Amino acid sequence: MSQVIKSYSPNLMVHPYMRQSHHADANDTLDDVSARVIDMLPRLHVLVVGPGLGRDSLMQDTCARVLEEARKREMPFVLDADGLWLAQTRPELVQGYRLCILTPNVVEFGRLAESKKMDLEGDPTTLCERLAKSFGGVTIIQKGAKDYISNGDRTLVSDIEGGLKRSGGQGDTLTGSLATFLAWRQAYMDRLWDHDNDVEASELLRLAAFGGSSLTRECSRLAFAKRGRSLQAADLTDEVYQAYLNLFEGSASA
Hints:
The chain has about 250 residues and is an alpha/beta fold. The chain is about 45% helix and about 10% strand. It has 10 helices and 6 strands. Helix 2 (about 30-40) crosses helix 3 (about 55-70) and helix 8 (about 200-225) packs across helix 10 (about 240-250). The longest helix has 27 residues, at about 200-225. It starts with a helix and ends in a 6-residue tail after the last helix.
């Protein structure tokens, strides 16, 4: 599988460490596989877990081990897709960890709420805040017509115009954008450039979440304007550059 992934683009760096149960050999125990991945953590700023993961027991158990170690190192991580299955079935992995961002769609949000026995009745604009509180202050991006972003204390609404089609896989643009902004957050805190250092770490995480949501919505708008109903998730990638300029560098060419 690693060769297939690598063949998609020369820009991808692929480390073929993860194993599904039916592909594992005698040397691919949970301890061995998770150790290989954990050994890479000092080289990373942020983790994204979920897209393409699946629910194979060895894959899920490996990710659980890695997330436990990431928490010990106070490393931010983003959970999407089958990474959210981990949050649903093993909530202790994320409970109370304020450097975690969950990015559920409407179905995934419902499953997370059910795992916390949270009633979805009432004001829909408060659901994200309530679920974030139930997870002890993780940040949740509730994807929808508007994206609600909350850590249980503060809630932001990302409501810039998006595209009129939702294609499976668009969430990968969001998770990748979030990872980028979270890495820049770390660079800010490490003072890799001169600045006043007047933005708190918690505020930087909120800004990363809002920025990732906004960038993804703008990519969707631009891609839909070109592709219409034929839009596919990969079309959003082609719009990242222009979307970033439009939102963050004042170039309003659309």
